[in-house]
Amino acid sequence: MGRKISGPGFFLGKKAEFNFGAGQSDLAPPREILKVKVPKSFLYGEIRGQKELVKKVASLHNVDEAGVVITNGASEAIDLIFSVLLNKNDKVLLTKPYYYSYPFLVKLNKGQTIYTELREDHIDLGDLEKKISGCKAFLLNSPANPTGSVEEKEKIREIQKICKKNNAFLVFDEVYSELTYEKGHYSPKEENVISVNSFSKTFALCGLRVGYLYTENKEIAKEVIEHKTHKSMNTSTLSQLVALNALKVPRQYIEKNKKIFKERRDIIYDGLKELGLKCAKPEGAFYILPHVKNPQKVVEDLYKENVILYNGKWFGAPNRIRLSYAIDKEKIKDGLKKIKKYLEVEKCK
Question: What is the pLDDT of residue 348?
């Protein structure tokens, strides 16, 4: 097998018949986005972002254009936010489980991570209040990777109040905002809230690398632009033209894809329950996080059987594995059969 499977990066460029690891949509992007008039030259663009795209994003989220910055994916947006907010050893509160890059982004910006434990994959407000004291920011992801949980409007409002009371910023990662199945999505807005979104998940454009942040705090946006000037300069101008076209796509494209993912969610949830695995039913995004014994062994053994899974430990969730259902429903069904066959032999439930 070669080097030990030590994280999601191991699987980059690797192929498998049943890939439950990929955090990207397998559905086709909207065809309309390809109707781009390619410019005759590629000069540097504005650091904030191309004017028309900034204007469209600002209108979409009902904020001033001065509070919008277009970035190289959501990851750069979060990196820039922490670059601006954090001084050496400043604390950032994360949930556990978390998206696997979060702790690294804090560390790379000289910060320290503190964790609030989820209760049944949702925010425990009591634990949040205990942990947030002295933290510069709380990073909330809803809908969440890897749990698939969605926090309700009233709870997010309570989180806003807790953050404000403790002089902490709420960094709100909502890249899966268009993938909620039963609950609606709520986007908080206030001076201490900085929201992050992307074109990757909604429009199946992960490789395009266009995300953005928006906030009512214009000073924060101004500082982000200053940092971006020296870190990466402008986001790809051609990619921004494609992203602008994506925002003009009819709503039916998004609703159709959501329906497909919801059907897949039901198939994989019911299938894992039939295998006797304990897991919560995802409310959004396209991940599920069942409990297993010895997840590293499960991941390594099944990789030899042409099945890719992620170890929950990489997401702060030991004794669990993460499966993405961003694959065809027939692949999900057949992949579950292979997992069932393996579990019957290895007794890893």
Answer: 59
